[in-house]
Structure formats: structure tokens, C-alpha cells
Amino acid sequence: MKNKVKKTRKVSPNRLTCQISGQSRISNKVYLANKGEKNGVTGNVWASFYVSKDSYKELVEYVSEFGFKSACEHYKIDSDRLKKWLRYNGRGAFVKIAKKIEKDIAENVQLAA
To answer: 102-111 — which CB contacts under 8 Å span 24+ positions?
Structure first.
């Protein structure tokens, strides 16, 4: 009988894990460094706010439909984390959407009062 050789391979530190779905994918340190630099943070910080493309689309749809506050409650996070998820993983379009939604909600509250 052959003795099984222990695997000495390390798990890659460049693995991205989606903060919403938990899915992970492999990446490389240059990609992480570039993404971090683009957003004014380190690659590790950027990776800690990573959201997969499918989850990001669902998140934007939810924020567009129900607003920031509701999205924070739905995902059980604070507004700063939600903003970072959107900012670090999107192309900045969420800012316009968020401002419009919050403005509409404020106007509706004023009209109802």
C-alpha cells in the first residue's frame, strides 16, 4: 500500500469572496492592487468589499426599487458598507440612483405630512 502524501499547497491569498452570496473566485495580486488603487484603498481593503457581478446587479436593482435604508435592513448592514459595496464594485451610476431615490422618498414623506 502506498502512503498518501500530504498536500503542501497553500490556499491562494488572492481569492475573492462575494460578501453577499459567499461565492469565491481566484484572482491575482496585480488585479487586486489596481482595483484598490483605483478606489484609493489597498487591494486587501478592496477585496474585503468584493461583490460578485450577479449579486451586484441584484443589489442595484433592490436599491433602485426600495431605497438605501431598506437595502441596509434587507442585507443587515450599515449604510457605509452598502455605499462601499456599490462604489467599489460598480461604475458610479449608483450615486445618481441613490440621490434620486432618497429625494423622491423625502418628497413623498413631506407630501404625506
So the answer is: 102/67, 102/68, 105/67
pTM tops 0.85, yes or no: no
**Matching residue, cell 488585479:** 31
Distance from C-alpha of 74 to C-alpha of 62, rounded to nearest angstrom: 9
Q: Is 42 exposed, middle or buried (0-12, 13-18, 19+ CB in 10 A)?
A: middle
Cα separation, 71 vs 67, whole angstroms: 6
pLDDT in tens, 55-89: 999 998 898 888 888 999 999 999 889 988 988 89
- Domain extents for the chain? 15-112
Pick from 14, 13, 18: nearest CA to 88: 18
